[in-house]
User: Fold this.
Amino acid sequence: MSAGLQPNAELEIAHVLFIDVVGYSRLLINEQSALLAELNQVVRTTPHFCTAEAAGKLIRIPVGDGMALVFFTNPEAPVQCALEICKTLQDHPHIHLRMGIHSGPVDPVTDVNDRSNVAGAGMNIAQRIMDCADAGHILLSKRVAEDLAQYGHWKSRLHDLGEIEVKHGTVVSVFNLYGEGFGNSQVPTRIKKQSRRLFPSRGQTRTSRRRSAVRAVAFLVLTIAIGISAWAYFRNPSRGVGGAAFIPFKSIAVLPFDNFSDDKQDTYFADGIQDDILTALSQVSDLKVISRNSVMQYRAKARNMREIGQALGVAYLLEGSVRRANDKVRITAQLIDARNDQHVWAEHYDRDLADVFAIQSEVAENIATQLKANISPSEKAAIDVRPTRDLEAFDLYLQAKQLINTFSDTPDRKETLLKAVRLLDEAISRDPNFALAYCWASRANDDLYWFDLDHTPARLAQAKTPAQKALALAPDLGEAHLAQAMFYYHGMRDYARAREELATARRFLPNNAEIFSVTGLIDRRQGRWDDALKNQEKAAELDPRNPRILGDLAILYDLLRRYDEEQAVFDRAAAANPANATYFQMMRASIELEKGNIKTARPGLDSLPAGYDPAGAVTFTRISLALYERDPSAAEKILAASNLEEIVGGTGSLLPSSWFEALIARAQSDGQKTREAFNAARLKIEAKLHDHPDDGILVAQLGLIDAGLQRKQEAIAEGLRAVELRPISSDAIDGAAVLSSVAMIYAWVGDVDSAMERLVFLAKTPGGPDYGQLKFDPAWDAVRRDARFAKMLDGLQPASNRR
Assistant:
C-alpha cells in the first residue's frame, strides 16, 4: 500500500478486481505453487497494474485461490487490467480464471501480519460477484457497468444478467463483459439455476414461497417489458442521436425555462435561473446531467417528452418558468419522467428577488431527492453557496453569460465578447468578491484571444488575471479551475498544467461536458489516443446535441483514419442539427476524398448550394479533387471563381490564394508561373511569421515554398526548424502536420529516402497524410514510384474500400 493510503483514513471508493483460479483445488501442491507464480508474473506485467502500482494507487491482496487488486484510480482500471490479463493468458492456455469487478467503499486496515490491507462492502460485493462466475467470465456490478456505459466503446460489450441473490440474502445486479478475445458469452451456471426457480420447493416457508413467486413474476414482467422497449426503440427512427440504449435512472436534463416576465428582454434572467439549477445538479456525482448546449435547442418548441428523453439519453426532464416583477420573483418547476411522460414532482416559489439563490438550491436538492441521488456534504455545500449578495451584480453577470454563450452566432463576435467583458467588469466593481464573475471574465477574454479576435499578449493577460483572482477567492470552485485550465491550454500550450486544473475541476463539476471535451483535446495533442476517445465520447454523452463536441469527436476519428466512425458521428450531428446540413454534406464529401473515393466525393460537392464556402473549405476540397483527377485546368477555374485572399488548407490554417496558384501551376509544369506564385505566397507567409515567429506550422509552410522554388538548403533548414518548434512528442497533431510537410519538402528537393523514412513513420501515426492524398495528389509524384511507397499505401487503404 502506498504511503498516501493511511490505515486510519476515512472510507473511500475503490475499484476492485477479484481473480479466482478455476480448478485450483484439484491440482497437486507443487502444481498450485507453480501456477500461482506464473499467474502472479502475468498480472504484474499488465500495463494498468504497473501504472497504478508506480503511482501508489494499488493494493494487491492474496485471496483464496487467487487475488484481489484494489485500484484507487478510476472505474476503468480493473476492467482494463482484466482485459490485459485475458490477452496475456492466450499464451498460457492451461490457466483458467473467473473475475468479478465492483466499485465501492473500502476501509484501510492493518492485518494480523501488520501489513496494510482493506475491508468493507467494496471488497465483499466484488467477491460475491466473482462467485457467480464460471471459467472465463468477467462479471461486473451494475455500478461499474453504469460507469462504463457512459463510453461508446464499452456499450456493445455489456450484457445485463439481471439480479441475483448472493451470500447472506444480498441481491446484486450483475453484468457480463465479453467481446472478441475476452470473456465468456454464456450465462453463468449459477445465474441460470437461480432464474429457473420460478416455483418454490416443498421445504420453503409461506413467506419465502411468496417472495420467490413475486420475484418470478417480476422477472417475467421485466423480461417482457425489456423486449417491448427494445422493439419500440429499434423500430423508432427518431430515437436518440447517440443511439444510446442504456439510460441510467439517475439522469436528467434541465430544459429552458419560460420567461413570463412582462419585460420580454428578461429571457437572459430565465436562462440564468435554468443554467444555475443545471449547474447545481451537475455538481452531484451520483447524477448524469445533460449540458446546456444540448437542452437549449428545445426552447419554444412543442415538447414530446419521451422523444426528448430518448434523444438526450435521460430518464427525467425538468421544465419551469420564471416571472420577475420589481423585487419579487415567481419560479415554477416540474419534474417529468420522460419514459412515460408522467409528472412526478412540481413546486412553485413566490419569494423576494433576494431569495433567488435559495430557490435554486431548493429546486436542485428536491430534484436530487426525487431521483434518489446521494449528495455528499461537500456537494451540498457547493449547491448552497450564494455567489454574490449584490443582485445588480448578479443581473449584470447573467447578461454577460448570455452573450458569451451565444457570441459565435452573432454578426460581430468581437463586439459581443467585448460587451460581455464590460458587463462583467461592472459586476466585479460592484462586488469584488464575485468569483464566478471573474471566471466568466477570464472565459470572455480567452475567447477573444483563442478565436483570433484579439490575439495579443495584452488580451492573454486579461484572461489570466481574473482566472487567478477567482481561484484565490474560491479554491473549491470548479469554474475557477476550468478557467485556469483554458488559460494554460489556449494561452500557454502548457498541456500538463491544463490537465492538472481540469482534473481538479472535474472533481467539483463531474457532469461538465466541456471539461471532458477539453481533456480529450489535450489527450489528442499528447498522443493519448485511447484516452482522447474516452473523454470525447463522454463529452458527447453529456452534451449529445452540441455540434462543436460532435465535430471534435469526428475530427478525432479522422486523425485516427477511422472514416466510417467519423461518418457516423457526422450523421449524428446532422440529425441533431438539421440547420447545419450543408456543412455536414461538405464534410461527407471530404471524407470520401480522404478515403480515395473520387467518384463518390464529386456528387456531394456538386450538390452544395452556390456560394457556400466557409473559410474557403469548399474551394480547397474542389481544388484537391480536380488535382487528384489530374485536371489542373479545372482547379485553376475553381480558384479563379473564389474571391477569397486566404483559403483554409490541409492543416486547418488559412493560406494565401497564391499558394494554391503555385500548386496548380506546378501540376501544369508551368515553371515561370510556379515561381511567381510561390514568391507571392512567400511574402504572405513571411508577414505572418513576423507576428508569430515560433509558429511551427508557418515555418514548415515557408519550407515547402522554398522547396517549390528549389531553394534546397533553406527549405530543409526551415523544415527541421519547424520540427524543433512543434515536435510530435510534445504536440501530436501539429507535430504530425509539420512532419508531413517535411516529408514533402524532401520529396520536392529530390531526397526520396528522407521523404520515405518520414512517410513510413507517418503512415502508422494518427494525423499523417490520408490515403486519398497519397494515392492521387500530384504533390507526391516524386516518391510515388518507390517500392516502399506502394507497400505503405496498401497498408493505409481504408477497410471499407477493401470490401
